[in-house]
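Hello,

I think I submitted the zinc ion job twice by accident. Can you confirm which output corresponds to this input? Input:
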Amino acid sequence: MRKFFRLILSAALASAATQSPAQTRPPATGTPKLLVVISIDQFSADLFDEYRPHFTGGLARLARGTAFSNGYQAHAGTETCPGHSTILTGSHPAHTGIIANVWIDQSLTRSDRTVYCAEDERVPGSSTTHYTVSPMHLRVPTLGDLLKQQSPASLNVAVAGKDRAAVMMGGHNVDQRWYWDGKTFSTDLKSAAVPATVTKAKAAVAAAIATARPPLDVPPFSQAKSAPVAVTPELTVGNGRFVRAAGDVRAFRASPELDGAVLAIAAGLIQEMRLGRDNAPDVLSVGLSATDYVGHGLGPGGGEMCLQMLSLDRSLGDFFRTLDAEKIDYAVVLTADHGGVDIPERLRSKGIAQAARADPALGTADIGKAIAAKLHLNGPVLLGDLASDVWIDRSLSPRDRTRAEREAIAIYKAHPQVEAVFTARQIARMPLPTRSPDSWSIADRVRASFDPQRSGDIYVVLKQDVSPIAKPGPGYVSTHGSVWDYDRRVPILFWRRGMTSSSRPDHIATVDILPTLAAEIGVPLSRPLDGHCLSIQGVTCPSR
Ligand SMILES: [Zn+2]
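Support: Only one job matched these inputs. Its output is below.
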């Protein structure tokens, strides 16, 4: 999506973006002046492994740094908000407080008791879908927050395709924060003047959306993956080419265009704000969300994801070349907020016979109704979605709540698609796991997602390869969020100019990123964290 680099950046920088790489300069030494932290939404380690041999751009460059293909978003609730909350805090969701994208707060007086992770529900009129963006639910500081405490001249900037990505990676004290709000790029910062880069970007994106987009070319490698699969009699995926009608904003979001625009804004802000130009190190967080929208809408196993991966690789290459042209001494870490798994319809065609969609009867509404009928109770009895956190209606008497909980556990446990059910009491008694994340039990994973104020009364775990999307439809055919490794395992790639290429098989976690970056730029950590500093080239970890 080079057009956004041309439209948003200065002419010199835009042409640098598309030129071949500059001659190799000597390896970087000392403290990097700019940390670029990139999260690709839903970029599973499975996707990274599959496409790694085909990357030639920015992802190929990072894969030649210190590349961990066994990174983990270690916790159970592998959703976007919790995942982004771990990347720059060194903390599991049990400590960040971000247990899910949304949770139910039964003490709220508004009729909508579902709270969005990045909203300020105290604002009058706020709801789960029409909300005021805020970092208030994040219980811990981010790397940028810690850096600015120590070094007030340092800048902390976040740009993303989703508000929750920009909020959870940027944190509480940001100098600029911009995210796609569904129509244009917005910020939650009241006082900030709009940078010229963002004004240009808004105009460039509006003009792009107003014009229809022709189909993308399918390179030979993607043609092999481009085959139609029927999800429902009305809905086929697999061979799309990102055609967009003029004015179709949703199609813009679920395409390589979104990431191209976000990366061009990130590059423009680096230039305009002079990030990485003085001795106070700066942090830039970049949330690239299109992979997630492509995954949800079309599944990660088809020709569309192939086009998205190759486009993103190229856009990242363009982005890094602009930083090279600016001669900035920068270090990069790239990871993902969670993984993902393909649609059961395509998995079955590949021989994964147990892949299935969840029984719609597992929804809390249906199970709640059955319990109400059996125990002669009123109201919904259960609140929440299909699986994961389930809340018991607080308006019931304590005695009825206990009876309802017992009944709910029995119903869930008897269902053939349910792997395990835990009560909040069971999980609260467990210590947070500290072993290597590949060896965690399912209960360990649930524990790392547990917050006593926000979590449900019951946690329901579906069996592996059971998609919680019981009824797929346009834009929503596959998802993530489970305790299984296809949703937990993500790449973690560290890169800096001159780094010796190293592919590391060790099992690490996204909570290890903050302690590692803090050591790299000399930010002292005053409180214990869930993650540990990683021994990689250019980083001297403090002795434990
Ligand atoms: Zn996500």
